[in-house]
Amino acid sequence: MKGTAAGIGIAGLAGLPVSAFAQENDPIPATFCGEASLPPVSPPGGQAGQCINCVAAVCEGPVALDPLFNTDDQPDYFDGIDFTIPAAEIPAGADYLTLKAGPNCFLAEVPAAPSGDVTFRLTQDAEGNPERLQDISNATFYSCEGEDPPTANVVKVTCDFITIETANIPAGTELAVTVTFADGSTELYTPTVDEDGLATVGLPGDVDPIWVRIEYLGMILFDAGVMAKDAPCGLQPAVVDFKVTCDRITIETENIDPGSTLNVTVTFADDTVLTFLPDVDADGVAVVDLPGDRDPAHLVVTFEETEIFDMFVEAVDAPCVKPRPKKKKRKRKRTEKTRTRRKKDEKKKADDRSCGKKDD
């Protein structure tokens, strides 16, 4: 049942036959009805239901959501502010169409018995809102008679599982869940909704999921980028131990293939910086030979453009620059002969002084 448009500013739309505002094959106006609202999903995303509030305002009964079309699925249907669809593709029983363009929603009434292609066109409302009409990104058909629409209310993602909390989807029903991973691979899963409305997808666990698309009977309930709560997933390259001396740095790694090359940057206490490219051996160990004549102060290890270690360090045998010993003053060694000669000289001087006094 179609209601009235009073209270939402859709003048001359709901409750009137299509012929009242458009001739046969003329574009059907889709009038601005408010801003889009995100469904309660985590993380935010998904297109289905973002303009459902516009329909709920004009429907007297429950609103049923029909298949969603978007620019990825049906690119030929969208042309800027126009949405053109073959009449045969319009879902049976559809009463209204919402078009989402940027952050805004537009509402159009679906003709009862269309023929050929049907074009819906964005228009401003009576007050001239919005000021700029953006390109349409998706279109959704609705029926005013039916049960509440199916939804994916909460989507939780970890490395090992995707947990989906649904509403208005019968237990035992399968969902189509497409997951795109960080390595570029894509997998399709078909989890079953249980009695509590939950559906769970088991993931490999060693690669990060980055995009999730959830479909039910052709309806897109969720389609958005995601990040695992416990990311990064899988075994990550790491430095698990290290030893620094004046002459050498020994780096113990984990989850790095033998033969792989590390990029090691060492900053010394005198502010000199040296870069080394040691290979990881079969035991996961890489060795860097240092000059030995300066103190290492900071160590950075990079593997495949990812920094896996960054820390201030100190050689266990520091200081590496040995201080120069002070020169000792040379002391004149007095020999026994020298002492004897000095005594004789002193005695002679004393005798000479005595002789001088007698002469007087």
Would you mind describing this structure in some detail?
Strands 2-8-5-6-1-7-4-3 form an eight-stranded mixed β-sheet. The N and C termini lie far apart (157 Å). The relative contact order is 0.11. A hairpin with a 2-residue loop joins strand 5 and strand 6. It is 8% helix and 38% strand. The chain has helices spanning 52-56, 336-359, and strands at 28-35, 64-70, 78-79, 82-86, 96-101, 104-109, 117-123, 136-143, 151-157, 161-167, 176-181, 186-189, 198-202, 209-216, 219-225, 238-244, 248-254, 263-268, 273-276, 285-289, 296-303, 306-312. The protein is built from two helices and 22 strands. It has 360 residues and is mainly β. It is elongated and about 155 Å long.
Secondary structure tally, helices: 2
The percent of residues in helical segments reads: under 10%
What composes the largest sheet?
A: 8 strands, mixed
Q: Taking Cα atoms only, what radius of gyration do you get, to the nearest Å?
A: 42 Å
Overall form: elongated
Order of helices and strands: EHEEEEEEEEEEEEEEEEEEEEEH
Mean pLDDT: 82
Low-confidence stretches: 1-23, 40-46
Widest beta sheet: strand line-up: 2-8-5-6-1-7-4-3
